[in-house]
Design a protein that fits this description.
Radius of gyration of chain B: 29 Å
Shape of chain B: flat
Number of domains of chain B: 2
CATH architecture of the largest domain in chain B: Orthogonal Bundle
Largest interface: A-B, 53 and 39 residues
Number of strands of chain A: 20
Helix content of chain B: 55-70%
CATH architecture of the largest domain in chain A: 3-Layer(aba) Sandwich
Oligomer: heterodimer
Distance between the termini of chain B: 37 Å
Radius of gyration of chain A: 24 Å
Strand content of chain A: 25-35%
Bound molecules: adenosine-5'-triphosphate, magnesium ion
Strand content of chain B: under 5%
């Protein structure tokens, strides 16, 4: 068990930076998820933690101790590799048992641990196969097994369940979370699936292009994104963005667009820091903070035209055309607007966000 | 610095509590459609490959002519008592005589010792060199330097070492003598040192081949496995034996195959250095064969020896190849 600190960490591959000035503090025993799109430097971060990649600049500390120069075997971390990295000439059993064998644990203990891990991962019937006789998802579970048979200071999971089917993934999410809770071991969990990050992590580090965008609890990341990029990346279906004008009008500030003019809530006006004079801004609002109806409501609303309806099981997603943009609204399946119909959208103003039109940072 | 924390392993029930597994599953395990006994009604035939034979036929014909014809001629020869004057049919007598021929049996035992010593040294040194070269920044230069002994004709290598071993002005002799390892007798004049001397030449000339082969093998040792094993807690040495060596195994088998067949064939340096002496101490079977066939011109007897040699080579080669063919699952 260890707390993990990144102090101004950089990673360069030749001349290209993959991780830029990373500063993170993962408390002891926490479940930290690194979330970001493909190629944003997540795996590079993990590999620096495991000691597989030289740290180009800055320090990584475990429990306040600098570990930059410690070889992998002395860092006592367990890692699930993105590409499984199983040993092809060993059976599944021996693959999972490898970390214990290397620590000369006695055979009975190894057997008990491997069996328990295999049962948890539902691969107990595969123990004497070799990796090339397994499917992708099965290999991935063997890789997880290899990490969880022992109790390291730190778990590093690099997209560990990306290749499993939806049901098994949901099951594994619960199991991994439970395992981490029970052991109390610090876990760093890389994923590009925001649902995984939001549902499992205590803290999420959102990365983009090697840079940390935001660090916070899942609800902070979801409800208070620091910039438009984070807001757009997190949440499914994705947040709607509409470029509008901010206009002040006796004490009130309005958000104005060809299709609507809606005032900000009084406390939101203060958060703008007088940016209203800047003119344009981007309004962001999640599809589930919107309500759609075919009749014009009393509150200020957005008027548009139904473009397409998508039925997603228990919900319906309606895409509405505005002048020059599109908005997606989550509603009930009973909504009977047909493509081409005129419709009206009301916004839950508690839940909308205003982003700067230039650099995209959030005012609220 | 950091202590490697011990794997804290609790009692077994603690383990099972940690993994809550499936006992608490709340899902309904519905049986999916289909049973174990469904099978297609009829299997499709494999892809036709009839025309392969036509394409291969010319090659097979030429091969048969250039390799099989002399082979059968050799068998025919081995059943005769031939000298320069001509031959007469003796059946299996040549073979029967071999069984009681001390020098023939001695030749075998020397050949096996010689080959085993060469292979062992070449493999060990070759792999170590390959690892060193692979980790070096001067890899290209080193590889070029390593290639040099191999480019030399074996007889020339023999001559070179003849000078080095020379009792009057040879470097090696001088070094050994100064160190007190060797008396004043020439290296090649004593039975045990003579054998070591010819092994040495073979090792000097052919270790680079193993190094090159191993180097090629090292290039494709999967990095991710090495990394995984390191994270699992392996030291570099254990990592080498657990991951590198098993991955090197197929190419090393090829190296062994090549080298042991060469040991059974290449005698140039032995002829130059010792000619099989002193007192048959280095008269490994191929040298003896050379003597019988081309010094005493007992061509029939020589053919019989050659055939036994060939047979053993084929059998050993076959064994090695089958070891190599064994599915190792090195694909992942
Ligand atoms: N060995 C390397 N040499 C050069 N560039 C590299 C190397 N490894 C990664 N990169 C680059 O560094 C950047 C970050 O790579 P990284 O593997 O950390 O991404 P990632 O966030 O894990 O992506 P993914 O979700 O696709 O796994 C990428 O642009 C990649 O091209
Ligand atoms: Mg990655």
């Amino acid at each position: 068990m260890a707390s993990v600190t990144f102090k101004n960490v950089w990673k360069y591959y030749g001349k290209t930076p993959a991780v830029k000035d990373l500063n993170i503090e993962c408390p002891d025993g926490s479940f930290v998820s690194i979330l970001g799109p493909s190629g944003c430097g997540k795996s590079s971060t993990m590999r620096m933690l495991a000691g597989l990649e030289h740290i180009s600049a800055g320090d990584i500390l475990f429990d306040g101790e600098r570990i930059n120069d410690l070889p992998p075997k002395d860092r006592d971390v367990a890692m699930v590799f993105e590409n499984y990295a199983l040993y092809p000439h060993k059976t599944v059993l021996e693959n999972i048992a490898n970390p214990l064998r290397l620590r000369s644990v006695d055979d009975d203990m190894i057997k008990a641990r491997v069996d328990a891990a295999a049962k948890l991962l539902e691969i107990d019937h595969l123990l004497d196969r070799r990796p090339h006789e397994l499917s992708g998802g099965q290999k991935q579970r063997v890789a997880i097994g290899r990490a969880i048979v022992r109790e390291p200071r730190l778990f590093l999971f690099d997209e560990p369940i990306a290749h499993l089917d939806a049901k098994l993934r949901a099951h594994m999410r619960g199991e991994i979370k439970h395992l981490q809770r029970t052991l109390g071991t610090t876990m760093i969990y890389v994923t590009h699936d925001q649902l995984e990050a939001l549902s499992m992590a205590d803290y999420i580090a959102v990365m983009h292009d090697g840079e940390l965008q935001q660090w916070g609890t899942p609800s902070e990341i979801f409800n208070k994104p620091v910039n438009a990029w984070v807001a757009g990346f997190v949440g499914e279906p994705a947040m709607n963005f509409v470029t509008c004008d901010l206009v002040g009008h006796n004490q009130e500030v309005f958000l104005r667009h060809e299709n609507f003019e809606i005032p900000l809530l009084p406390d939101q006006v203060g958060k703008l820091n007088g940016a209203a004079s800047a003119g344009t801004a981007r309004m962001g609002v999640r599809p589930d903070a919107l309500e759609i109806s075919l009749t014009k409501p009393h509150q200020p609303s957005i008027t548009g035209e139904v473009f397409v309806n998508e039925l997603l099981g228990g919900d319906m997603l309606v895409e509405v055309l505005l002048d020059g943009s599109r908005i997606r609204v989550k509603t009930v399946p009973e909504f009977d607007g047909q493509p081409g119909d005129r419709c009206h959208i009301t916004v839950n103003r508690e839940k909308w966000h205003i982003f700067d039109a230039m650099d995209g940072h959030a005012y609220f | 610095m950091t202590k490697i924390s011990q794997v804290s392993v609790g009692a077994q029930d603690a383990t099972s509590k940690l993994f809550r597994a499936r006992e608490h599953s709340v899902e309904v395990e519905a049986r999916p459609l289909g049973g174990d006994d469904i099978k297609p009604r009829k299997f499709n035939p494999p892809l036709p490959r009839r025309y392969y034979l036509y394409l291969l036929a010319p090659a097979i014909g030429i091969l048969a002519f250039i390799s099989l014809y002399p082979f059968f001629w050799l068998i025919f020869l081995s059943m005769q008592d031939v000298d320069i004057m001509g031959g007469n049919w003796v059946g299996l007598e040549n073979y029967a005589n071999l069984l009681t021929d001390r020098r023939f049996l001695n030749g075998w035992s020397l050949l096996l010792k010689y080959s085993a010593a060469c292979l062992f040294l070449q493999l060990t040194i070759g792999v170590i060199l390959a690892v060193i070269v692979n980790n070096s920044r001067y890899e290209k230069v080193l590889v070029t330097a390593l290639l040099m002994p191999m480019m030399m004709a074996p007889a020339v290598a023999g001559l070179l070492w003849l000078f080095l071993y020379n009792g009057t002005f040879g470097w090696y002799h001088w070094i050994m003598e100064s160190l007190g390892i060797l008396g004043s007798a020439s290296i090649l004049a004593k039975a045990d040192t003579a054998m070591a001397a010819i092994v040495m030449v073979d090792v000097w000339q052919w270790t680079p081949l193993i190094t090159l082969i191993a180097l090629a093998g090292l290039k494709r040792v999967p990095r991710d496995q090495l990394e995984a094993n390191m994270v699992d807690g392996a030291s570099p040495l254990r990592n080498f034996f657990a991951i590198t060596l098993p991955n090197l195994y197929p190419v090393l088998v090829i190296g062994v195959l090549l080298r042991f067949m060469d040991n059974f064939r290449f005698i140039d340096h032995i002829l130059v250095l010792t000619g099989g002496g002193p007192a048959s101490a280095t008269k490994i079977l191929p040298v003896y064969l050379f003597e019988v066939a081309f010094k005493f011109f007992k061509l029939g007897r020589g053919a019989a020896i050659a055939l036994t040699l060939l047979l053993v080579t084929i059998v050993l080669g076959k064994i090695l190849v089958s070891v190599f063919d064994k599915p190792k699952g090195s694909r992942s």
